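Table S2 (continued). Query chain:
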Amino acid sequence: MTTNIPPDEAVSAETDSAYANDSLRNFDQQHQITDKDGEFIVPSFIQKSTSSPLPDAEADTVEKKPVSRLRVENDTKKSPTPDPQDNAQVQPEEAKPSVAASEPNGQKAASQPAPNNSPRRDDMHEASKPQRESKQKLGIIGGKGSGKSYLFQAMVYRTYAKKQAGALAYYLDGCEGDVHLYSSPVHRRDLEKAVETAEFVNEYENCYRLGSTLFDDQRWYRLTLPYRTGLLGTQRRELEVEFFDGCGEALLEDRDMGTEKQQLWKAAYLDATTMIFILPLWIAFPRKNLSSEDFEFRDRQLKGFRAVIENYHELRRLYKAQHPVRSILALSMADDPRTSLTGILDRWITPYMDKPGFYLNKLRKGQGVARYLANARKVSAFLHHEFEYHNDPLMAGIPDRLEFKAGKVWMIPLSAIEGKLLDIKLAYPQQRLDKPVPVHVELPLLVALCEHENALM
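Corresponding output:
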């Protein structure tokens, strides 16, 4: 299924490449280092930060790399024509990624506040929808302290008001029906109940995480997003985002899984066609002057992240899964100052965080969506370059381990919630906080929306 920008808001040749049939498929060709005109410094609608520019902040290591600035070749391909099979039903076992999005939180985890331990809302009214068979799924996975719960909460928060959904607003706005959220115990999907979305959003605004993700208290969440598609945007579909709120330490990082855990992995991830893997940006690219405690925490995070990847590979081997899976590496906590990639922080995170309303409005329009995807590809290419020349072979090999027959991994730095808010919440639990500003949390959904009809997270 291909989601197209209607012709009434056709994009210029400069931004057409974001929707060209093979512009995202041929990832290697799209991100060759070329002439100065294609240099990526600041996205076209982002004001330059007064902080250190990208990538001059890494000047101390630039002599070790053959390339010090990221350039992307100009692409003047025309936008693809609408998919004539846009209304066709896709069977789960035959689903294949489309080419619309083919090739490619700012907090200190140690200071996160305690999770919200309020009672589960099992007294909510039963969902009227019957149990459905699995369709296209998008899975989210990460180790303990990676920020996966905050990411899902931020996605619900960002899409709650359609006109403030950033790039997703182009597809969500104008659709009949509201955003709905459902939940069920992990072992009883038949007991799915509707969750009060406004209250769910309110808890995120107050920096409360989802309830404690213990092995015996794991839950499924399903978010439905109605959106418009088709040649003139007159067709209506739903993007389904399901989140398995699994216990990172007890389940996701455990390399010695029993039958019960294997079945949970199978139900959550085996038939997913898009997978989001979570790793904090500062864990991948730390500053040199971190404390010994930070480096010890980083070692534990990397060990857990590698275990998560190997468990997913083992799941596919165990059940002989051969279907391609589009992978996304969400580099969370991208506003954390402990990262060495200060250019990403200054150019990709801080401008959006300082003026969220301005940029969310910019991204609502058709041309804004195209530029957003084009800029995201440039950032992803830059990060591929940084991983390639990482001084740790274990880190340099991560992109290869995240390829599952669907091309190179998308790399998306994002922030689900500001670290400074979490610090204030921890120090002053009763103090009224500013509203959180999630940054780029809608981008993984946009990639999934462009590529599939439904998603599981």
